[in-house]
Amino acid sequence: MDFNLSEEQTMFRDLFRDFAEKEIAKVAEHTDRSEEPPTELFKKAAAQGFFGAPIPENYGGVGIDWLPYTMLAEELGKHCVSTAITVAIHTSLSAMSILDVGTEEQKQKYLPPMASGEMIGAFALTEPDAGSDAGSLATIAEKVDGGYRLNGTKTWVSNGGIAGVFVVFAATDPSAQNKGITAFIVDADTDGITVGYREKTMGLRGLDIRTVYFDECFIPESNRLNGENAGWEIITRAFDRIRLTLAAVSLGAAEASLALGVTFAAERKQFGTQIANKQAIQNYVAEVAVDVEALRGLIRHAAWLADSKQDFTRAASIAKFFGARVAQNAANKMLQVHGGYGFSDEYAISRNYRDVRALRILGGTDEMQRFIVARGNFEEKGIKIQP
Predict the structure, then answer these.
(1) How far apart are the first and last CA of the chain?
(2) What pairs with residue 224 in β-bridges?
(3) Distance of CA 190 to the CA centre of its chain
(4) Which of 51, 186, 189, 368 is most open to solvent, judged by the fewest CB atoms within 10 Å of its CB?
């Protein structure tokens, strides 16, 4: 592996960083306080190509590889985790699922408006009684003349209230569990869709999370994504992508917390000197800095595997598991550096502290990442473990 960035990769990183510092940083606090997605910011980000970053140029995107894409997620995550995850759900889960297995007709219809930001994507998998256990989906897609009739409820649908299109998973053969899932591309204006109220959340208050109801929705067969009962492969590949992306968001969030803590320690004085001179503060900073660099290495390795067309499932889970813990640990330690001020919403570390907690749940919980990592170890001994 060559850890040097190419001239093009450096250019992309600088572009992402410049936009995040000039545009995202100045609205991040308002986004958190208003508890609404920053739609005007999204238009600016779309104009820069961020919503189509990994989509090939022939479908209206930029066509960047995984390494610069993770740098985009990192830079967005430094200044607003909600915005970073909005883009991640749209690209890594929704648009790239269509790119991965969609027909040429589906790609031509949906990817250009998704790449331009005209159509935001959402990914509807989780249900009230089916989270990590996707084989227990209660949403049913019944085969009818010309297509399918979709009925069910999806919860925790990120981008749900701003989406123009959903990638929806439903059981077409409930008895087959994972092998009986089918994916569909569902336009948001389809008859029978009801989008519920935005979920009130502890953090990520700029992320539009909804419950979405499907009542006798007719989905034409042309909107089935891949073959019937072939949805499980789409889910697993999408999870690989979102886990690597969320690891990069975690890296950005951890870097932001570290920078806030270092700045505060350099400015805050106690007993006649900056608290940066206190060994306890130095230890916190050093521990977080080491974790940040270790996480960067894991992300670079996973991105290299993805870019070289190798299996990156386990590497993505390792990076996501470690990244979520690093982000939370960094926010916790740097809040401690702030002392009582860190408990005030007037300081940005408070928002970071609330936002990063969700990273240990989104894209698959810590427990699921542990299972995936352990599975690889036991497979070497010929043992197939179950979650």
Answers:
(1) 33
(2) 184
(3) 25
(4) 189
Paired with 201 in beta bridges are none
Farthest CA pair distance, the chain: 79
Give the position of tokens 């077409």.
172
Pairwise CA distance, residues 298 & 292, whole Å: 10
Distance CA 61, CA 12 (A): 14
Q: Which two tokens stand for residue 30?
A: 């308002």
Which of 20, 23, 8, 5 shows the shortest CA–CA distance to 259? 20
Which letter does DSSP use for residue 51 in this model? G
What radius of gyration do the chain's Cα atoms show? Answer: 21
Question: For residue 8, with 0-12 CB atoms within 10 Å meaning exposed, 13-18 middle and 19 or more buried, which class applies?
Answer: exposed
What three-state secondary structure class fits 120? coil
CB 229 within 8 A of CB 109: no
pLDDT at 295: 98
pLDDT digits (tens, 9 = 90+) for 224-248: 999 999 999 999 999 999 999 999 9
Stated pTM of the model: 0.96
- For 258-289, write each residue's pLDDT tens digit: 999 999 999 998 888 999 999 999 999 999 99
Per the DSSP assignment, residues forming a β-bridge with 217 are 150
Separation CA 245–CA 68 (nearest Å): 11
Domains, the chain, in order of start with CATH, read 7-115 (1.10.540.10), 121-229 (2.40.110.10), 233-379 (1.20.140.10)
pLDDT of 134 reads 75
Distance of alpha carbon 327 from alpha carbon 50, whole angstroms: 23
Strands of the chain (E only): list them: 121-124, 140-144, 147-158, 165-171, 181-187, 193-195, 209-220, 224-225, 269-270, 273-274
Would you give the distance in Å from CA 307 to the centre of its chain?
19
Checking 263-267 for CB contacts under 8 A at 24+ apart, the result is: 264/334, 264/337, 264/338, 264/341, 264/349, 265/337
Q: Are 324 and 248 in contact (CB under 8 A)?
A: no
Taking the CA atoms of 312, 46, 52 and 54 in sequence, report the sign of the dihedral they define.
Answer: negative
- 64 phi/psi in degrees, rounded to 5: -80, 155
Provide the H-helix boundaries in 21-156.
Answer: 25-34, 39-47, 66-79, 81-88, 96-101, 104-115
